[in-house]
């Protein structure tokens, strides 16, 4: 297992190797980047290798790709060199996002060349970026692929995703210092930002999201013990359940689909009734809680529902609460019939 030591924080994540940093150097046509030290115990005898990417404006895919390739045993002691000089690139041990070649046997990972159609496979059809070619990630945004199958403009713009945050680390046009050294420092920050979020995502999925799958599967299997309809599921232990539910319903051919999920709120010592969304990314519910309940609270809600212990129902009807499990279950059963 790989131990990350950073500011006293020690964390083990999968079988990823360790990284070291190299000194910061620059020439007029070539930029060497020292990236942060994410571990301190790489073997000193590891051969020194050089990984190249383009200079100039940078994006999330090559920043993350450079970070990730340095997590491998082969390139754990590597130096990042930013240049577009073909002669320099030819002599490097690996090249990302520049050079016009995708050849993993020779550690060339560009995706800009004509005819490039490499995808992850296994049912995923998004064309890969340079980071994706290293570890199949950050691909749709970098390749200009729309998130939805529609020509309609989005109702709002998300400018806080990882790609946009990396983009804002590029040198500001108003900055009087536009030197390669300054650009190099910005790219180093981009690698740290993209890399830290990547590692945190791996940690979350390994320690939290994946173990939750077995919990959700067990709860789906027991749904008819909760209610004869099979449309109410109770989480024995709260965990990331939403995407697992959609995937498992499809795999297990669950019919009818689950409409409500009940789970305990340990902090409030209450129970929640959550309407399952129409799809993983939808704000619409398969069967929202009844309209006449929405926006009501406490005694007023209990009077309207004729169910004791009611706490609230959200204005959109996607979630409600009750002081007890029994009350939450009655709310779900009643809502099914309305």
From TrEMBL:
This is Metal-dependent protein hydrolase. Belongs to the MYG1 family. GO terms for cellular component: cytoplasm; nucleus. It holds the Pfam family MYG1_exonuc. It comes from Gossypium raimondii (Peruvian cotton). It comes from the Eukaryota.
């Amino acid at each position: 297992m790989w131990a990350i030591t950073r500011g006293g924080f020690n964390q083990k994540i999968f079988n990823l190797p360790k990284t070291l940093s190299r000194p910061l150097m620059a020439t007029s046509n070539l930029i060497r980047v020292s990236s942060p030290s994410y571990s301190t115990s790489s073997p000193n005898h590891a051969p020194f290798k050089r990984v190249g990417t383009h200079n100039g404006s940078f994006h999330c895919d090559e920043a993350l790709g450079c970070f990730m390739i340095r997590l491998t045993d082969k390139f754990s002691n590597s130096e990042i060199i930013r240049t577009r000089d073909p002669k320099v690139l030819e002599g490097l041990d690996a090249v990302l996002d520049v050079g016009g070649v995708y050849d993993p046997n020779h550690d060339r990972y560009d995706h800009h060349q004509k005819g490039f159609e490499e995808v992850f496979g296994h049912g995923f059809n998004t064309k890969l970026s340079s980071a994706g070619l290293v570890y199949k990630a950050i691909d749709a945004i970098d390749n200009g692929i729309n998130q939805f199958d529609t020509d309609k403009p989005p109702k709002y713009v998300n400018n806080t995703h990882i790609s946009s945050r990396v983009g804002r680390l590029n040198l500001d046009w108003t900055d009087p210092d536009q030197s390669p050294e300054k650009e190099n420092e910005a790219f180093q920050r981009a690698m740290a930002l993209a890399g830290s979020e990547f590692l945190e995502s791996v940690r979350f999925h390994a320690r939290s999201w994946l173990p939750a799958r077995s919990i959700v599967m067990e709860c789906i299997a027991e749904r008819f013990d909760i209610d004869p309809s099979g449309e109410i599921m109770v989480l024995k232990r709260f965990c990331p359940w939403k995407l697992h539910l959609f995937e498992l319903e499809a795999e297990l051919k669950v019919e009818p689909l689950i409409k409500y999920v009940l789970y305990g709120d340990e902090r409030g010592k209450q129970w929640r009734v959550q309407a399952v969304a129409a799809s993983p990314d939808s704000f619409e519910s398969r069967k929202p809680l009844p309209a006449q309940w929405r926006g009501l609270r406490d005694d007023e809600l209990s009077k309207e529902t004729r169910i004791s212990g009611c706490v609230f129902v959200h204005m959109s009807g996607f979630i409600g609460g009750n002081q007890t499990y029994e009350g939450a279950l009655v709310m779900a059963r009643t809502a099914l019939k309305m």
